[in-house]
What does this fold into?
Amino acid sequence: MTKKKNNLILIIPAFLLIGIVIGIQTQELFKQASIGLIVGIITYFFLKYRNKKLNK
It folds into this structure.
């Protein structure tokens, strides 16, 4: 069985891109992009902590 690659870091740019798309639609590009970046970073650290806790 092959080991699954850990692509958890890809969550940050995904939330950033979602924020940019919402910002384009609402004419608040930088505000929504920064919110998406912050949410992506928070989600990344939360899932990293959860995975570390589950693997013990």
